[in-house]
Amino acid sequence: QVQLVESGGGLVQAGGSLRLSCAASGRTFIRYAVGWFRQAPGKEREFVAAISWNVGDTYYADSVKGRFTISRDNAKNTVYLQMNSLKAEDTAVYYCAASGRSSGSYDPALYDYWGQGTQVTVSS
């Protein structure tokens, strides 16, 4: 089992920045790819970013490319999502998820463990 806890969400003005953290505990986290997803009210959960277990590969949704950066510190069992130039449409609950696959994926069905989510609200 892997337990994931997100933090760092909050209220920010458009154009501002936030850094989300996903802290993991349990089984060896280093071998898991990690993804960030988000879900806005009335919408389906959507892929945001993912990172492979060895930090070699990162993946981003087109909507966040150039604004968001995913990174991980395996020594701290933590994955980060740095979000810059935030827009109102980035408002959502953000979830991190861990996959036993070595590479990240856009498909939420390929993730085995999920956190409880953290709310990000961007005011325009």
What features would you highlight for this structure?
single chain, globular, 124 residues, mainly beta, 7-stranded mixed beta sheet
Notes on the structure:
A hairpin with a 6-residue loop joins strand 5 (46-51) and strand 6 (58-60). The protein is globular and about 40 Å long. It has no helices and eleven strands. It is mainly beta and 124 residues long. The strands form two sheets. Strands 2, 4, 5, 6, 9, 10 and 11 form a seven-stranded mixed beta sheet that branches.
Summarize the structure.
The protein is mostly beta strands. The protein has strands spanning 2-7, 10-13, 18-26, 33-39, 46-51, 58-60, 68-73, 78-83, 92-99, 113-114, 118-123.
Give the SSE map.
Blueprint (H helix, E strand, L loop, with lengths): L1 E6 L2 E4 L4 E9 L6 E7 L6 E6 L6 E3 L7 E6 L4 E6 L8 E8 L13 E2 L3 E6 L1
Parallel strand pairs: 2-11
Antiparallel strand pairs: 1-3, 3-8, 4-5, 4-9, 5-6, 7-8, 9-10, 9-11
